[in-house]
Amino acid sequence: MATNDKIRILCADDHPLVHDGVSFALQFQSDMELVGSAFSGQEAVEQFRKLCPDVTLMDLQMPRMGGLEALVAIRREFPKARIVVLTTYSGDVQAARAISGGAVGYLLKSSLRTELVRTVREVHQGLRRIPPEIADMLATRYDADDLTPREVEILRLVAAGNSNKVVGDRLSISEETVKSHMKNVMEKLAANDRTHAVSIAMKRGFLAI
Amino acid sequence: MATNDKIRILCADDHPLVHDGVSFALQFQSDMELVGSAFSGQEAVEQFRKLCPDVTLMDLQMPRMGGLEALVAIRREFPKARIVVLTTYSGDVQAARAISGGAVGYLLKSSLRTELVRTVREVHQGLRRIPPEIADMLATRYDADDLTPREVEILRLVAAGNSNKVVGDRLSISEETVKSHMKNVMEKLAANDRTHAVSIAMKRGFLAI
DNA sequence: TTTGCGGTCACCCTTTCGGGTGATGCTTGA
DNA sequence: TCAAGCATCACCCGAAAGGGTGACCGCAAA
Hints:
- The structure is a homodimer.
- Chain A has helices at about 15-25, 40-50, 65-75, 95-100, 115-125, 130-140, 150-160, 165-170, 175-190, 195-205; strands at about 5-10, 30-40, 55-60, 85, 105-110.
- The first copy, chain A, is elongated and about 60 Å long.
- The first copy, chain A, has ten helices and five strands; from the N terminus they run E-H-E-H-E-H-E-H-E-H-H-H-H-H-H.
- Chain A has about 210 residues and is an alpha/beta fold.
- The first copy, chain A, has a five-stranded parallel sheet, sandwiched between helices.
- Chain A binds a DNA duplex (30 and 30 nucleotides) through helix 9.
């Protein structure tokens, strides 16, 4: 009976050391229990289906299916799923997207153990635990600043060292169109030039590192 | 007596969860002992001076002084220091540099717990524990492909959206000199243009993300 | 001491970028 | 239904980038 009252936790992260860290952090919490581990987004979805945990800790950077896709997939199937984002780097759009995608908590890996435990507990109680700076990011401009899929596609080709003309050939569109897209991208990212745009996009998580 | 035979370990990483993971991994190893924790490069150096650990686990990405500088600083003061690099991302030059800088082991954070323990033990016995792909990287081209500090400085300004002319003004050198440096950078990185160079440099760890 | 390398600079010339302006067709949501 | 946003394309023009070539200085290693 008492055992059933424990908060059942699933941890999805491709770093075993982080799993160990979570285990360590939870082992002294009598009201929590780590019931599953996943090392990829795909595995996270499978484990979620099997275990239906109360709280899921989800890293955003994982092999095969990324954390964001996994989060969305899980929420589509289980809209009540309570998922906490666990990320290395602060200030990227990935995080903002995760919140938009339905995450109810946000933890940096540099968080203290006590923060982890507190967040899990509060999220389980139904609260949302989003740091102000992330909430601001959503409120202010990141939502509007989002690049379209087409823009990201073009920016990726530009980052790979292709000129506007070559990008146009690759995508079977005119060079002028590519220029037009790049113009929009630079404006959205407040970049001085294409190089700046790529570096901003990489920093913010629009482009894979 | 027996206690003194334990391998004394210092862990330097800005992620408390990783510390916890290391604690967890070590807690069942009777021949090892975690004697210190550092959360920045600077702190790592200070802790090393104070504790003189047998083995140091060092993350490369840390605030204030980076792991690489800390490693170099420690090795300069204590040439016999046995330092294992603990990194998130594989395949970057940072790792290769760390090896050049005197690291005797290299662990991905995605390593298994058993690998961590084994590496610590072997490194303490005097072995080097460098994965073949990293060793290859050193042997083949990364050594020659290294950018000079000046080139990195210029590339960083270019990544920030400055034109050659502006970079020249900032550094009080001619625009022509900047072009000359960028030419070399692009050749070394096998980049098509400056944008490509920046994206390659960020991927390889020349430029901070 | 000579060689190499890093850092500095210059000139020329072609290609590419980036800004401005404007226009069309399609889809989607208010 | 109508506005808004996305993707598409065109033309002009000045500014910047990039390729080639060559040169000088200082320092450190061979």
